[in-house]
Amino acid sequence: MRFASFPVRFLLLALALSASLRAATVALTDATVVQLQAAMTTGTITAEKLTQLFLARIDAYEKAGPKLHAIITLNPKALDEARALDAERKAGKSRGPLHGIPILLKDNIDTADLPTTGGFYALRDSIPPQDAEQTRRLRAAGCVIIAKANLSEFASGAAISTLGGQILNPHVLDRTPSGSSGGTAVGIAAGFAVFGLGTDTGGSIRGPSSSNGIAGLKPTLGLNGRGGIIPLSLALDTVGPMARNVSDLAAALNVMAGPDPRDPATAANAGKIPADYTAALKPDALKGTRLGLLRDFMKIDPGVDAVTETAVAILRHAGATVVEIKLPRFVLGVNSGLYLAIRDPEFRYQIEDYLATLPRKDLPKTHAEIIALSEKITEPTKEGWVPNKNRLEAYRREKKAGTLDDKPYHSALEDGRKIVRENLEWIVAQEKIDAFIVPTSSRPPRTIKEADATPTGVATTNNGSAAHLGNLSGWPDLIVPAGFTSDPVLPVTLSFIGPAFSEARLLALGYAFEQAMPARMLPVTTPALADETITY
Question: What is residue 464's predicted lDDT score, i.e. its pLDDT?
Fold first, then answer.
């Protein structure tokens, strides 16, 4: 028996050794949804432990360390929710690829069990009557909402709010993380969660993604629902995922895309959502594609241009044809001023529609009340609320913007957007391109002092913002890390802009570019902590 059992023991040892050799490891802050899901499936980590690891990073770099001001509210029940999801998995019930994945939500997205503040101090205790559609979808998919992220107040202006304070860029602390989804972007770059949600009206996902060196997606207007999100301008508002890599954007979009009974715009997505956005993610997806480089938004900063030229060379090496595109001058002229003509009057009235849905009677109900309350915060208070001069100036500008019945507003809403959209459609058809490419931001993140001095919504280039093209046309815009400037070292990203409902194609192109040119790094102020290796 002794000798007969030896081969069995040897075989078991060999099988165990083989399994250990096949196992792979990855840093927590590099791990993808797929890798984390594999680790939880095999039992090398649990949702509870994963949530604990992210909470430890928040403790280290949000509550202490550089104190990034990326978070407004931690979910006190996050660990309980993670344990419940672990119990479901143990019972053989998996909700899908996002089961047990910790995420951040921008704090203008309603949560029925946590305050939704918009960053405004007077809404600090506001509990909405129900979850936003995106909150509902992600919770049903098994996500753990670990925290609500700080933002530019009411999703507009510099990356500061009266309630959450000034958000810091973890790459270089005196530089802006950009707004308005600055807290989400900082949290993802610093490794506070796997992915997060931002909202985008005129660049609010794309600017922060670029400034913090992460991936992000502003989806097609109508691809996914905005019910239960504090509006800035419903003609332009979108909600999208922000992550450290493109594949996680695709995994999130699988859950986010679809109808919303509270958002009539989603009627447009019928029959236009693929079964799986991750299916087309292949390293060779750039082969045979044709991309149009928008040089109208370059020649602002040599460092950004140098990174962009390298990215173009990589795209060509990967099999893409890149052609130069010059937008018609009148399109650039319309683009530069159209955004505020729509956004200002819409916010003035639409914010009151949202405030009317809140159950508490002691909360502000009008735009005029928001102004009056903002004027009361002239210096930091003992509660920690801070003045927000930039946003207060914008409130006052909105007050003078006219009504939703005025001709200038309707001309911008109907004729102006049509001009932008139809000209982009014409160029795509004429040049036979799959997508436009452009540096997401034409310059590196400015200093916080400079960003705070720039009026809310005002473009910093003569041609306006390339980001506005996506909002005015309603088209999707994918952001992918492309490299870094030097002195100081700051992120640069590349945008892929395509026709309506072309998210699957853009994600494929962005994924292939990401594989050919991996260009993300953990910020120097938020390094890895002990025991953050994931085995899967």
Answer: 73
- Beta strand extents in 140-189 (DSSP E only): 144-149, 160-161, 165-166
Angle at 178 between CA 177 and CA 180, to 5 degrees: 120
Low-confidence ranges of the chain (pLDDT < 50): 1-6, 10-11, 13-15, 17
pLDDT confidence of residue 347: 98
Amino acid identity at 517:
M
In a 10 Å sphere around its CB, with 0-12 CB exposed, 13-18 middle and 19+ buried, how is residue 26 labelled?
middle
Of 152, 156, 161, 180, which residue is the catalytic one?
Answer: 180
Q: Where are the alpha helices (DSSP H) in 59-193?
A: 78-90, 133-140, 182-189
**Continuous segment of H or E residues that includes residue 384:** none
Backbone angles phi, psi at 378, to 5 degrees: -100, -15
- Is 204 one of the catalytic residues? yes
Q: Are 258 and 219 in contact (CB under 8 A)?
A: no
The residues near 119 (Cβ < 8 Å, ≥ 6 apart) are 72, 107, 108, 150, 151, 152, 153, 154, 161, 162, 163, 164
Residues 181, 183, 186, CA angle at the centre, nearest 5°?
Answer: 105
Burial class of residue 129 (count of CB atoms within 10 Å of its CB; 0-12, 13-18, 19+) = exposed
Are the C-beta atoms of residues 346 and 201 closer than 8 Å to each other? Answer: no
d(CA 353, CA 370): 14
| Cα 482 to Cα 466: distance, rounded to the nearest angstrom | 17
pLDDT recorded at residue 21? 53
Provide the 3-class DSSP secondary structure of residue 76.
Answer: coil
* DSSP label at residue 447: B
**Which amino acid, one-letter code, is at 482?**
A
Which 3 state secondary structure label does DSSP give 300? coil
Please give the pLDDT value at position 318: 98
What pTM was estimated for this model as a whole?
Answer: 0.95
Catalytic residue among 181, 204, 441, 495: 204
Please give the domain boundaries of the chain with CATH numbers for all domains. 25-260+280-535 (3.90.1300.10)
- Which of 242, 141, 132, 256 lies closest to 194 in space, CA to CA? 242
3-state DSSP call for residue 61? helix
What is the model's pLDDT at position 410? 97
Taking the C-alpha atoms of residue 373 and residue 359, their distance in angstroms, rounded to an integer, is: 19
